[in-house]
Task: structure prediction
Amino acid sequence: MSEIIKQKVYNARVVLMEISPPHLEAFDHVGFLQNTIESIPGLSFANANLYFYFFNPSHDDFFMDEDFWIAREVIGHHEFNDDDELDVFDLEQGDSFKVKIDLDMNGPESFEKICQYEKHFRSEISEKVALAPTWRLSFPWTNTFSGSIYLEFFPKVDG
Result:
């Protein structure tokens, strides 16, 4: 199995689009997200990664029916209107636990496999630290998927 790496996550601004299941159809919306960000003066990509944010563990009874985010980290500022399909969210600095997974994103079973990895690594990390229900996938994105896929988990924050 892959090594779990604890890392710092720094303040970041994400432009996001809320998506309804099925999860793999999210890729149909990535072009819109990318093109919109590129078309806004004063916004630029902070890195090459595309993120999928999920707000409950994959073994949750309602997980497959819950909305999730696709997002890109950006530099700059833009106020979206309430009727826009995109929104902005500012992430606070903290820690995450990151693990590389080996997966072919082109197969129809890929999301099922992601959920299996998420369950396994959530269980392993939870033996040492309490985790928040939110987790994310990150992977390099230009105009298509390219590179390694990472699962990222966040410690539970009291308060």
Q: What stands out?
A: The domain at 4-155 is CATH 3.20.80.10 (Multidrug-efflux Transporter 1 Regulator Bmrr; Chain A). The radius of gyration is 15 Å. The first strand starts at residue 4 and ends at 9.
